Amino acid sequence: MDDFSPSDLQAILHSKRANLYYLEYCRVMQKDGRVLYLTEATKENLYFNIPIANTTVILLGNGTSITQAAMRMLAQAGVLVGFCGGGATPLYMGCEIEWFTPQNEYRPTEYLQGWMGFWFDDSKRLAAAKTFQNARIDFLKQVWQKDRDLKGEGFNFEDKSIQSALDTFFTRTEKATNSQELLLTEAQLTKVLYKYAANTTQADGFKRQHQSTSKVDIGKANDFLNHGNYLAYGLAACTLWVLGIPHGFAVMHGKTRRGALVFDIADLIKDALVLPWAFICAKENATEQEFRQQILQAFTDHKALDYMFDTVKAAALSEEQIAVIDASQQGAPL
Protein backbone atom coordinates (compact mmCIF):
# COMPACT_ATOMS: atom_id res chain seq x y z
CA MET A 1 0.00 0.00 0.00
CA ASP A 2 2.89 2.36 0.70
CA ASP A 3 3.93 2.11 -2.94
CA PHE A 4 0.87 4.13 -3.95
CA SER A 5 0.72 7.91 -3.91
CA PRO A 6 -2.48 10.03 -3.97
CA SER A 7 -1.76 11.01 -7.56
CA ASP A 8 -1.61 7.32 -8.59
CA LEU A 9 -5.09 6.77 -7.19
CA GLN A 10 -6.56 9.94 -8.68
CA ALA A 11 -5.75 9.53 -12.36
CA ILE A 12 -9.49 9.66 -13.12
CA LEU A 13 -11.22 13.01 -12.60
CA HIS A 14 -14.11 12.84 -10.14
CA SER A 15 -16.58 14.03 -12.77
CA LYS A 16 -15.61 11.06 -14.96
CA ARG A 17 -15.66 8.31 -12.33
CA ALA A 18 -18.22 5.58 -12.92
CA ASN A 19 -19.02 4.08 -9.50
CA LEU A 20 -21.16 5.03 -6.53
CA TYR A 21 -21.50 2.30 -3.89
CA TYR A 22 -24.13 1.65 -1.22
CA LEU A 23 -23.04 -1.12 1.16
CA GLU A 24 -24.79 -2.79 4.07
CA TYR A 25 -24.11 -5.73 6.38
CA CYS A 26 -20.44 -5.98 5.51
CA ARG A 27 -16.97 -4.95 6.67
CA VAL A 28 -14.82 -2.65 4.54
CA MET A 29 -11.08 -3.31 4.85
CA GLN A 30 -7.70 -2.99 3.19
CA LYS A 31 -6.10 -6.22 2.00
CA ASP A 32 -3.06 -6.68 -0.22
CA GLY A 33 -3.08 -3.04 -1.34
CA ARG A 34 -6.78 -3.07 -2.27
CA VAL A 35 -9.98 -1.94 -0.56
CA LEU A 36 -12.43 -4.82 -0.18
CA TYR A 37 -15.75 -5.43 1.48
CA LEU A 38 -16.34 -8.69 3.31
CA THR A 39 -19.70 -10.41 3.60
CA GLU A 40 -20.41 -13.48 5.67
CA ALA A 41 -22.14 -16.28 3.80
CA THR A 42 -23.49 -19.49 5.33
CA LYS A 43 -20.31 -21.53 4.89
CA GLU A 44 -17.69 -19.03 3.80
CA ASN A 45 -16.63 -15.41 3.81
CA LEU A 46 -16.83 -13.57 0.49
CA TYR A 47 -14.51 -10.72 -0.48
CA PHE A 48 -15.40 -8.18 -3.18
CA ASN A 49 -13.01 -5.58 -4.58
CA ILE A 50 -13.91 -1.87 -4.70
CA PRO A 51 -12.23 -0.03 -7.61
CA ILE A 52 -11.49 3.06 -5.54
CA ALA A 53 -9.70 5.00 -8.30
CA ASN A 54 -12.95 4.93 -10.32
CA THR A 55 -15.32 5.59 -7.40
CA THR A 56 -16.79 8.91 -6.27
CA VAL A 57 -18.92 8.02 -3.22
CA ILE A 58 -19.32 5.10 -0.82
CA LEU A 59 -22.40 5.07 1.39
CA LEU A 60 -22.18 2.78 4.43
CA GLY A 61 -25.60 1.62 5.57
CA ASN A 62 -26.89 -0.74 8.25
CA GLY A 63 -24.53 -3.31 9.71
CA THR A 64 -21.30 -1.90 8.26
CA SER A 65 -17.86 -1.17 9.67
CA ILE A 66 -14.66 0.15 8.14
CA THR A 67 -11.02 -0.14 9.13
CA GLN A 68 -8.54 2.68 9.56
CA ALA A 69 -6.33 1.25 6.79
CA ALA A 70 -9.27 1.24 4.36
CA MET A 71 -10.09 4.86 5.22
CA ARG A 72 -6.46 5.78 4.56
CA MET A 73 -6.60 4.35 1.03
CA LEU A 74 -10.01 5.88 0.34
CA ALA A 75 -8.64 9.26 1.45
CA GLN A 76 -5.68 8.84 -0.91
CA ALA A 77 -8.04 8.05 -3.77
CA GLY A 78 -10.27 11.03 -2.95
CA VAL A 79 -13.38 8.92 -2.31
CA LEU A 80 -16.19 10.56 -0.37
CA VAL A 81 -17.46 8.29 2.45
CA GLY A 82 -20.80 8.69 4.16
CA PHE A 83 -22.70 6.84 6.90
CA CYS A 84 -26.44 6.44 6.40
CA GLY A 85 -29.41 4.28 7.29
CA GLY A 86 -31.15 1.58 5.31
CA GLY A 87 -31.74 2.13 1.63
CA ALA A 88 -29.04 4.82 1.47
CA THR A 89 -31.17 7.28 3.47
CA PRO A 90 -30.67 8.52 7.05
CA LEU A 91 -32.25 6.58 9.86
CA TYR A 92 -34.33 9.67 10.61
CA MET A 93 -35.41 11.97 7.78
CA GLY A 94 -34.39 15.11 9.68
CA CYS A 95 -30.88 13.75 10.25
CA GLU A 96 -28.04 14.69 7.93
CA ILE A 97 -25.59 12.19 6.50
CA GLU A 98 -22.24 12.81 8.15
CA TRP A 99 -19.50 13.09 5.53
CA PHE A 100 -15.81 12.38 6.05
CA THR A 101 -13.70 14.16 3.45
CA PRO A 102 -9.99 13.48 2.86
CA GLN A 103 -7.67 16.14 4.24
CA ASN A 104 -4.34 15.02 2.79
CA GLU A 105 -4.53 16.77 -0.56
CA TYR A 106 -4.95 20.19 -2.12
CA ARG A 107 -8.26 21.63 -3.22
CA PRO A 108 -8.78 24.28 -5.93
CA THR A 109 -9.54 27.76 -4.59
CA GLU A 110 -10.69 29.43 -7.81
CA TYR A 111 -14.27 28.18 -7.60
CA LEU A 112 -14.68 29.11 -3.94
CA GLN A 113 -13.32 32.59 -4.64
CA GLY A 114 -15.63 32.96 -7.62
CA TRP A 115 -18.61 31.78 -5.57
CA MET A 116 -17.82 34.21 -2.77
CA GLY A 117 -17.45 36.96 -5.36
CA PHE A 118 -21.21 37.01 -5.93
CA TRP A 119 -22.69 35.24 -2.89
CA PHE A 120 -22.70 38.22 -0.52
CA ASP A 121 -24.56 40.36 -3.08
CA ASP A 122 -28.31 39.68 -2.79
CA SER A 123 -29.08 40.52 -6.40
CA LYS A 124 -26.23 38.39 -7.78
CA ARG A 125 -27.16 35.49 -5.52
CA LEU A 126 -30.75 35.72 -6.76
CA ALA A 127 -29.50 35.77 -10.35
CA ALA A 128 -27.51 32.58 -9.67
CA ALA A 129 -30.60 30.93 -8.19
CA LYS A 130 -32.59 31.81 -11.32
CA THR A 131 -29.81 30.37 -13.47
CA PHE A 132 -30.03 27.10 -11.52
CA GLN A 133 -33.82 27.03 -11.98
CA ASN A 134 -33.46 27.45 -15.72
CA ALA A 135 -30.69 24.84 -15.80
CA ARG A 136 -32.91 22.22 -14.16
CA ILE A 137 -35.53 22.74 -16.88
CA ASP A 138 -32.86 22.53 -19.58
CA PHE A 139 -31.78 19.17 -18.15
CA LEU A 140 -35.40 17.99 -17.90
CA LYS A 141 -35.94 18.86 -21.56
CA GLN A 142 -32.65 17.24 -22.58
CA VAL A 143 -33.39 13.97 -20.78
CA TRP A 144 -37.08 13.56 -21.56
CA GLN A 145 -36.59 14.32 -25.24
CA LYS A 146 -33.65 11.93 -25.54
CA ASP A 147 -34.44 8.95 -23.30
CA ARG A 148 -36.26 6.25 -25.27
CA ASP A 149 -37.21 4.31 -22.14
CA LEU A 150 -38.97 7.32 -20.63
CA LYS A 151 -40.73 7.98 -23.92
CA GLY A 152 -41.83 4.35 -24.00
CA GLU A 153 -43.36 4.77 -20.55
CA GLY A 154 -45.35 7.78 -21.78
CA PHE A 155 -43.25 10.68 -20.46
CA ASN A 156 -43.52 13.44 -23.05
CA PHE A 157 -41.86 16.80 -22.51
CA GLU A 158 -44.17 18.41 -25.10
CA ASP A 159 -47.31 17.48 -23.17
CA LYS A 160 -49.68 20.47 -22.92
CA SER A 161 -49.94 20.33 -19.12
CA ILE A 162 -46.16 20.43 -18.73
CA GLN A 163 -45.69 23.20 -21.28
CA SER A 164 -48.40 25.27 -19.60
CA ALA A 165 -46.76 24.76 -16.20
CA LEU A 166 -43.37 25.71 -17.64
CA ASP A 167 -44.75 28.91 -19.15
CA THR A 168 -45.97 29.90 -15.69
CA PHE A 169 -42.69 28.74 -14.14
CA PHE A 170 -40.51 30.86 -16.43
CA THR A 171 -42.71 33.93 -15.98
CA ARG A 172 -42.73 33.72 -12.19
CA THR A 173 -39.04 32.87 -12.02
CA GLU A 174 -38.15 35.94 -14.07
CA LYS A 175 -40.30 38.20 -11.88
CA ALA A 176 -39.17 36.71 -8.53
CA THR A 177 -37.54 39.19 -6.17
CA ASN A 178 -36.28 36.75 -3.51
CA SER A 179 -35.47 33.09 -2.97
CA GLN A 180 -38.76 32.34 -1.20
CA GLU A 181 -40.69 33.27 -4.33
CA LEU A 182 -38.42 30.98 -6.34
CA LEU A 183 -39.01 28.12 -3.90
CA LEU A 184 -42.77 28.60 -4.15
CA THR A 185 -42.60 28.60 -7.95
CA GLU A 186 -40.43 25.48 -7.84
CA ALA A 187 -42.91 23.71 -5.55
CA GLN A 188 -45.82 24.53 -7.86
CA LEU A 189 -43.99 23.08 -10.87
CA THR A 190 -42.95 19.96 -8.97
CA LYS A 191 -46.56 19.42 -7.94
CA VAL A 192 -47.58 19.46 -11.61
CA LEU A 193 -44.80 17.00 -12.47
CA TYR A 194 -45.90 14.66 -9.65
CA LYS A 195 -49.45 14.74 -10.96
CA TYR A 196 -48.30 14.13 -14.53
CA ALA A 197 -46.08 11.20 -13.48
CA ALA A 198 -48.85 9.70 -11.34
CA ASN A 199 -51.33 9.91 -14.22
CA THR A 200 -48.82 8.49 -16.69
CA THR A 201 -48.08 5.47 -14.49
CA GLN A 202 -51.67 5.04 -13.22
CA ALA A 203 -50.67 5.79 -9.62
CA ASP A 204 -54.16 7.02 -8.72
CA GLY A 205 -54.44 8.87 -5.45
CA PHE A 206 -50.73 9.61 -5.14
CA LYS A 207 -49.83 12.09 -2.43
CA ARG A 208 -46.23 13.10 -1.75
CA GLN A 209 -45.08 11.94 1.68
CA HIS A 210 -41.53 12.22 2.94
CA GLN A 211 -41.97 9.56 5.60
CA SER A 212 -41.75 5.88 4.69
CA THR A 213 -45.16 4.38 3.92
CA SER A 214 -46.67 0.97 3.36
CA LYS A 215 -45.30 -1.08 0.50
CA VAL A 216 -48.12 -0.52 -1.94
CA ASP A 217 -47.55 1.17 -5.29
CA ILE A 218 -48.20 4.67 -3.95
CA GLY A 219 -46.04 4.05 -0.88
CA LYS A 220 -43.29 2.64 -3.05
CA ALA A 221 -43.29 5.73 -5.26
CA ASN A 222 -42.75 7.89 -2.17
CA ASP A 223 -40.01 5.63 -0.86
CA PHE A 224 -38.28 5.55 -4.25
CA LEU A 225 -38.48 9.34 -4.48
CA ASN A 226 -36.81 9.64 -1.06
CA HIS A 227 -34.20 7.03 -1.97
CA GLY A 228 -33.41 8.58 -5.36
CA ASN A 229 -33.23 12.08 -3.90
CA TYR A 230 -30.58 11.01 -1.41
CA LEU A 231 -28.52 9.44 -4.18
CA ALA A 232 -28.75 12.78 -5.99
CA TYR A 233 -27.64 14.51 -2.77
CA GLY A 234 -24.56 12.28 -2.76
CA LEU A 235 -23.62 13.40 -6.27
CA ALA A 236 -24.23 17.04 -5.35
CA ALA A 237 -22.09 16.76 -2.20
CA CYS A 238 -19.31 15.17 -4.24
CA THR A 239 -19.47 17.97 -6.82
CA LEU A 240 -19.18 20.72 -4.21
CA TRP A 241 -16.46 18.92 -2.28
CA VAL A 242 -14.30 18.43 -5.39
CA LEU A 243 -14.71 22.10 -6.39
CA GLY A 244 -14.00 23.23 -2.83
CA ILE A 245 -17.28 25.11 -2.25
CA PRO A 246 -18.74 24.77 1.30
CA HIS A 247 -22.25 23.35 1.49
CA GLY A 248 -23.58 26.25 3.54
CA PHE A 249 -23.39 28.90 0.80
CA ALA A 250 -26.75 28.15 -0.78
CA VAL A 251 -28.50 30.35 -3.32
CA MET A 252 -32.06 29.13 -2.72
CA HIS A 253 -32.71 26.73 0.14
CA GLY A 254 -33.00 27.44 3.83
CA LYS A 255 -30.46 29.74 5.39
CA THR A 256 -30.65 27.69 8.61
CA ARG A 257 -29.63 24.42 6.92
CA ARG A 258 -25.90 23.76 6.87
CA GLY A 259 -26.01 21.60 3.76
CA ALA A 260 -28.49 23.71 1.82
CA LEU A 261 -26.31 24.13 -1.28
CA VAL A 262 -26.38 20.34 -1.70
CA PHE A 263 -30.16 20.59 -2.16
CA ASP A 264 -29.75 23.40 -4.69
CA ILE A 265 -27.38 21.32 -6.82
CA ALA A 266 -29.33 18.06 -6.49
CA ASP A 267 -32.44 19.83 -7.79
CA LEU A 268 -30.71 20.16 -11.16
CA ILE A 269 -31.34 16.47 -11.89
CA LYS A 270 -34.11 15.28 -9.56
CA ASP A 271 -37.10 16.22 -11.72
CA ALA A 272 -35.54 14.85 -14.89
CA LEU A 273 -34.37 11.47 -13.56
CA VAL A 274 -35.44 10.60 -10.02
CA LEU A 275 -39.09 11.64 -10.37
CA PRO A 276 -40.08 9.61 -13.45
CA TRP A 277 -38.11 6.49 -12.53
CA ALA A 278 -39.53 6.44 -9.01
CA PHE A 279 -43.05 6.20 -10.44
CA ILE A 280 -42.08 3.74 -13.18
CA CYS A 281 -40.30 1.39 -10.77
CA ALA A 282 -43.21 1.62 -8.32
CA LYS A 283 -45.62 0.65 -11.12
CA GLU A 284 -43.41 -2.34 -11.95
CA ASN A 285 -43.23 -3.29 -8.23
CA ALA A 286 -39.42 -3.15 -8.34
CA THR A 287 -37.29 -3.83 -5.29
CA GLU A 288 -35.15 -1.12 -3.71
CA GLN A 289 -32.06 -2.72 -5.21
CA GLU A 290 -33.61 -2.76 -8.68
CA PHE A 291 -34.63 0.88 -8.36
CA ARG A 292 -31.18 1.86 -7.13
CA GLN A 293 -29.53 0.09 -10.07
CA GLN A 294 -31.94 1.78 -12.49
CA ILE A 295 -31.45 5.29 -11.13
CA LEU A 296 -27.66 4.99 -10.92
CA GLN A 297 -27.62 3.76 -14.51
CA ALA A 298 -29.76 6.76 -15.50
CA PHE A 299 -27.30 9.09 -13.73
CA THR A 300 -24.50 7.54 -15.79
CA ASP A 301 -26.35 7.46 -19.12
CA HIS A 302 -27.29 11.13 -18.94
CA LYS A 303 -24.01 12.29 -17.36
CA ALA A 304 -25.75 13.80 -14.35
CA LEU A 305 -22.51 14.35 -12.44
CA ASP A 306 -20.95 16.11 -15.44
CA TYR A 307 -24.00 18.38 -15.66
CA MET A 308 -23.70 19.30 -11.98
CA PHE A 309 -20.00 20.13 -12.39
CA ASP A 310 -20.58 22.23 -15.52
CA THR A 311 -23.47 24.18 -13.98
CA VAL A 312 -21.70 24.96 -10.71
CA LYS A 313 -18.47 25.93 -12.46
CA ALA A 314 -20.38 28.22 -14.83
CA ALA A 315 -22.11 29.90 -11.89
CA ALA A 316 -18.83 30.44 -10.06
CA LEU A 317 -16.62 31.59 -12.95
CA SER A 318 -16.76 32.94 -16.47
CA GLU A 319 -16.18 30.59 -19.41
CA GLU A 320 -12.74 32.10 -19.99
CA GLN A 321 -11.67 31.45 -16.39
CA ILE A 322 -12.96 27.87 -16.54
CA ALA A 323 -11.04 27.23 -19.76
CA VAL A 324 -7.82 28.43 -18.17
CA ILE A 325 -8.31 26.23 -15.08
CA ASP A 326 -9.24 23.17 -17.14
CA ALA A 327 -6.18 23.66 -19.32
CA SER A 328 -3.90 23.91 -16.29
CA GLN A 329 -5.41 20.74 -14.80
CA GLN A 330 -5.39 18.72 -18.01
CA GLY A 331 -4.08 15.31 -17.09
CA ALA A 332 -3.86 16.24 -13.41
CA PRO A 333 -6.29 15.07 -10.70
CA LEU A 334 -8.70 17.44 -9.04
In short, what is this structure?
The chain has 334 residues and is α/β, with parallel strands linked by helices. It has helices at 68-77, 110-119, 122-146, 148-152, 160-175, 179-200, 217-243, 260-283, 288-301, 304-316, 319-328, and strands at residues 19-23, 26-31, 34-40, 45-50, 55-60, 64-66, 80-83, 98-100. The radius of gyration is 20 Å and the shape is globular.
How would you describe what is shown here?
With 334 residues, the protein is of the alpha/beta class. The chain contains eleven helices and eight strands. It has helices spanning 68-77, 110-119, 122-146, 148-152, 160-175, 179-200, 217-243, 260-283, 288-301, 304-316, 319-328, and strands at 19-23, 26-31, 34-40, 45-50, 55-60, 64-66, 80-83, 98-100. The strands form two sheets. It has a four-stranded mixed β-sheet, sandwiched between helices. A four-stranded mixed β-sheet has the order 4-3-2-6. Helix 3 (122-146) runs antiparallel to helix 5, helix 6 runs parallel beside helix 8 (260-283) and helix 8 packs antiparallel against helix 10 (304-316). The longest helix is centred in the last third of the chain and has 27 residues, at 217-243. The protein is globular and about 60 Å long. Mean pLDDT is 82; it is low at 91-98.
